[in-house]
Amino acid sequence: MSDMSERSPGGPRLREALEGIPSYKPGRPAATGGPVSYKLSSNENPYPPLPGVLESVSAAAASVNRYPDMACTELYAELAERFGVPATHLATGTGSVGVAQQLLQTTAGPGDEVIYAWRSFEAYPIITQISGATSVQVPLTGGAEREAHDLDAMADAVTERTRLIFVCNPNNPTGAAIPRADLERFLDRVPGDVLVVLDEAYREFVRDERVVDGLELYRDRPNVCVLRTFSKAYGLAGLRVGFAVAHEPVAAALRKTAVPFGVSQLAQEAAIASLRSEDALLERVEALVKERTHVLAELRAQGWTVPESQANFVWLRLGERTAEFAERAEEAGVTVRPFPGEGVRVSLGEPAANALFLQVAAAFRKEV
Ligand SMILES: Cc1ncc(COP(=O)(O)O)c(C=O)c1O
Known about the structure:
- By secondary structure, the chain is α/β, with parallel strands linked by helices.
- It is built from 13 helices and twelve strands.
- It folds into two domains: 113 residues, Aspartate Aminotransferase, domain 1 (Alpha-Beta Complex), CATH 3.90.1150; 224 residues, Aspartate Aminotransferase, domain 2 (3-Layer(aba) Sandwich).
- The strands form three sheets. A seven-stranded mixed beta sheet has the order 2-8-7-6-5-3-4, sandwiched between helices. A three-stranded antiparallel beta sheet has the order 9-12-11, with helices on one face.
């Protein structure tokens, strides 16, 4: 055999598509060492799992020498009943971000385009680039007061090459949600061969009745897929389980692209237990929604312009002063999520954490 060592002096060849991918920045953990510290940087549920959920997880832990049920049979049955959809329309994954990545694998590759609003969920550009497809980012509209999807511009951005559109509703990180009429008008304009993904990671926090539940829209639209997660309202971020609801060809393709045994048995059992304890869980969500109303009102009273949030976080557009605000908050004991040069996203936490954040915001405001 000839000497091949000269053929690859730089080591294994990696896909060019991976060059320059921004890395996903997880929310910083709460600071240690200070008198108190709260993590308001990852849109997590601040409350610990319900007792029944913990018991299910502990019981499942006794069998971690076995692979999980790859078909997620019981979880599918529970989800199908809870949401009134056929089990064949469901596909689970390692968090909804895992399912989102599978959606790209099933629809898009080099030469294809993926449309989404910007700024929106920071994983969209990363997973789009990994797929080899090209991101088409459509700026948010409505200024600091609305920070909303510009659905007309997004529909105008559709070309022959468009394969997938992410609609983040409510939008991370601004919290803005889309009224039913606007979303329906948009869906009517999108060609049927383009998959529209309604990412509803924060659906349980929506209280504005004008905002439609994506599950109502998907039923008679085969090109609509709804993404949901157990990470936020259900408080299972650490277990990595999310799911899609979509018509059969899409759901079946998602199941094909899933990492085998990706959703652990612990995650499956916890998700089932959470669905069965939904009333208790959603009481906690209600407490966070009350906090949201309070925090938004206080911020406005302090003189801030903040968009209406339908999620478990609020958004402050601080521009050049973003990093400074994040530092001040950290010094005071709350870790927030800065997007340098743009603004900070602050998750709603326990009342004491929110109160601390409001103190920081009030002091900062006086200096502006
Ligand atoms: C809009 C949106 N979609 C999806 C996710 C992913 O959540 P997970 O992968 O934990 O389900 C997040 C998490 O921050 C999000 O904000």
